[in-house]
Amino acid sequence: MSDESILGRILIIDDEKHNTEIIRDILEDVNYRTVLARSANEAKTIVAVEDFDLVLMDVWMPGQDGMSLLAEWISDGFDTPIVMMSGHAEPIDIVRALKLGAIDFLKKPLHDFLPIVRNILTPQEQPESNQEVSGIDYSLKLKEARNIFERQYLLHHLSLNNNNIATVAEKAGLERTTLYRKLKDLGIDKK
Fold this sequence. Notes:
The protein has two domains: 3-121, 3-Layer(aba) Sandwich (Rossmann fold), CATH 3.40.50.2300; 142-185. 46% of the residues lie in helices and 14% in strands. The chain is built from eight helices and five strands; from the N terminus they run βαβαβαβαβαααα. It has helices at residues 17-29, 40-49, 66-75, 91-100, 114-121, 142-160, 165-172, 176-185, and strands at residues 8-13, 32-37, 54-58, 82-86, 104-107. The protein is elongated, with a radius of gyration of 24 Å.
């Protein structure tokens, strides 16, 4: 497989040899490059020297389990997307994995997982916006940043619509009384 034809590099972390070989064969048949790790320690050694586009990781492994490795990597700033896998997962495990930072959770045995992998590894086109939000300091608390955005948004629409509250309320999807309150809270003079 030439480097140009590789669709992505995937690390598969799973102690079940048969399972990982099946996953590897399916992925390599459609031009993904895969590397197998049988334990968390082996995976750590591999990611120290190689970069990947995706990690498929089993939850239950001897030694360090997948959940604790996920938590460790996320807290260390590991930014490769991680998809957890398990044949014995309870809904609470799935929720925990997603809260920890996994981008998806697959139930084993894996069936029809290629579309999920393809979706994760295909760059998504960002929709072009006609105007960027400016003046937001991303170190602010969310509420403060939201207030800056709402202020810019409302001032923009008020300016475009000659300060017509009814029109701006309709565009913003708000009741007029709610819009009046919001304008007052944001310190916008509604001349």
